[in-house]
Amino acid sequence: MDTDLALTFGLLLWVLSVPASLAAWVDGRVPRIGLAMLTGGAGLVLFAVAARPGGYRPGEVPTVMLEVLARLVN
Fold it and tell me: Is residue 56 a contact partner of residue 7, using CB atoms and an 8 Å limit?
C-alpha cells in the first residue's frame, strides 16, 4: 500500500471515529465501532510514518491528502 494513501485513510478514520464514538456514547452504548476505527486509523498512520523514509512533516500532510484525492478523482 502506498504510504500517502495509508496516511490519508488513517487520518480519515481518526476523524470519522469521533462522531461514531459520540453517537454511541449518547445512546448509552459502548463505542466499539469508534474504537475500532480509531485503532485502525492509528495503525495506518503508524505504518505510513514508519514505511516512508524520513517520515512526514506536519506541513506536508495537507498536500499529501490533496494529492491522494486528486489521484482518486482522476
Answer: yes
Are residues 5 and 59 in contact, defined by beta-carbon separation less than 8 angstroms?
Answer: no
Nearest-angstrom CA–CA distance, 31 and 18: 10
Contact 61, 11 (CB under 8 A): yes
Cell of 73: 478523482
pLDDT score recorded for residue 50 = 95
Place of cell 512526514: 56
Query: Could you tell me the pTM of the whole model?
Result: 0.88
Instruction: Give 54-62 contacts, CB < 8 A, sequence gap 24+.
Output: 56/7, 61/7, 61/11
Q: Whats the size of the chain, residue-wise?
A: 74
